[in-house]
């Protein structure tokens, strides 16, 4: 399994940072440093030999000189503290470097383990998705197989009807072509008729245009004088209409007067004729009949008088009945109620359709 590139870049950046923090160039061995060290060592050896040749074995060292250098080329053990210190620092730096390398290695191992865990989770997720896709594909294949089977069955059922449909289509096509030819012929005839009507309309239009030209010429030349004459005639016509209205109103007034006088004369003639006929009829009648007719006339008058009195009495009766009803409803006309008012309270009776309101008086105390 290939390692992810971003983690390598991270480790490289960490290594570069750690290498920048700790500079080991001063402890690295180069050719110039080795040569200088060899020359220094040779010089120290020569100087030590010269010094040792000057010191006798019988000489004793004072305790006060311990811890201090005899000279710049002294090699006593108490003057080697700086060398030991340098060696300890070098060992500490090497240990620290190793610790840093170990930490970097641990970080890389941890990153690799995280990557492995992520790839494992991804593998499990992809495996589950593949199983789901496999199940879905299998279900789709089954559904497709069922649909295909249904379609094949439908095809087997409909295959026999294809020939019938084709024959029906050919028959319909032939009938449609026949209808098309018939319609085309009819439209051609109608088109010819329309062309004839169009020619007739164009001829009439030409005649109307000629008439219009004549009218325009008349309007431009003869119409102004004719218009003046027409306006004069209209004025005369209005004057004549006013005179005619006045004459007509006068004639109507005369007719009304004559008609009124004629109607009066007619009424007078009718009355005279009626009186003459009546007198002649009465004179020709027997005396008993005259008395009977006179009595009938008197009775007729009396009947009319009695009818009038009857209507008057009816109106009086209605008025009296209304007054009687008012008196019955008036509490002052109730004798018992006037004598014993405490037995007849004035409060109205409670009927079933009335609302009951409890209005019980309560005692209210004055505020303290």
TrEMBL record:
Which segments carry the region annotation Disordered?
37-59
This protein's UniProt keywords: Coiled coil
List compositional bias (Polar residues) regions by residue number. 37-55
4Fe-4S among the record's keywords? no
Q: One Pfam family for this entry, by name?
A: DUF4618
Q: Which InterPro entries match?
A: DUF4618
Coiled-coil regions listed in the entry: 90-254, 296-330
Any keyword DNA damage? no
Q: Which PANTHER family does UniProt cross-reference here?
A: RIKEN CDNA 6820408C15, RIKEN CDNA 6820408C15 GENE
**Protein's recorded name:** Uncharacterized protein C20orf96-like isoform X2
Source organism: Branchiostoma belcheri (Amphioxus)
Its taxonomic placement starts with: Eukaryota, Metazoa, Chordata, Cephalochordata, Leptocardii
């Amino acid at each position: 399994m290939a390692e992810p590139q971003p983690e390598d870049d991270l480790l490289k950046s960490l290594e570069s940072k750690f290498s920048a923090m700790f500079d080991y160039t001063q402890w690295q061995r180069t050719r110039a440093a080795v040569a200088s060290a060899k020359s220094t060592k040779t010089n120290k050896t020569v100087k030590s030999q010269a010094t040792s040749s000057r010191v006798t074995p019988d000489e004793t060292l004072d305790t006060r000189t311990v811890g201090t250098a005899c000279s710049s080329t002294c090699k006593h053990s108490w003057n080697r503290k700086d060398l030991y210190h340098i060696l300890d620092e070098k060992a500490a730096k090497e240990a620290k470097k190793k610790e840093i390398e170990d930490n970097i290695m641990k970080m890389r191992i941890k990153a690799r383990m995280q990557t492995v865990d992520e790839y494992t989770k991804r593998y499990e997720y992809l495996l589950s998705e593949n199983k789901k896709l496999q199940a879905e594909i299998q279900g789709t294949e089954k559904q497709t197989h069922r649909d295909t089977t249904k379609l094949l069955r439908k095809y087997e059922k409909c295959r026999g009807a294809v020939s019938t449909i084709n024959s029906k289509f050919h028959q319909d096509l032939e009938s449609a072509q026949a209808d098309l030819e018939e319609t085309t012929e009819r439209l051609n005839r109608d088109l010819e008729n329309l062309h004839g009507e169009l020619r007739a309309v164009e001829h009439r239009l030409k005649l109307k245009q000629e008439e219009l030209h004549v009218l325009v010429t008349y309007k431009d030349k003869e119409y102004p004088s004719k218009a003046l004459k027409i306006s004069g005639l209209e004025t005369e016509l209005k004057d004549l209409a006013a005179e005619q209205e006045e004459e007509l109103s006068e004639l109507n007034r005369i007719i009304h007067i004559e008609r009124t006088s004629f109607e009066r004369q007619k009424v007078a003639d009718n009355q005279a004729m009626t009186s003459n006929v009546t007198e002649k009829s009465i004179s020709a009648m027997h005396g008993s009949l005259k008395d009977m007719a006179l009595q009938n006339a008197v009775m007729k008058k009396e009947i009319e008088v009695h009818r009038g009195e009857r209507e008057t009495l009816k109106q009086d009766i209605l008025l009296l009945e209304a007054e009687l009803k008012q008196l019955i409803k008036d509490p002052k006309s109730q004798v018992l109620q006037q004598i014993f008012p405490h037995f007849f309270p004035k409060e109205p009776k409670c009927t079933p359709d009335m609302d009951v309101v409890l209005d019980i008086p309560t005692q209210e105390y004055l505020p303290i």
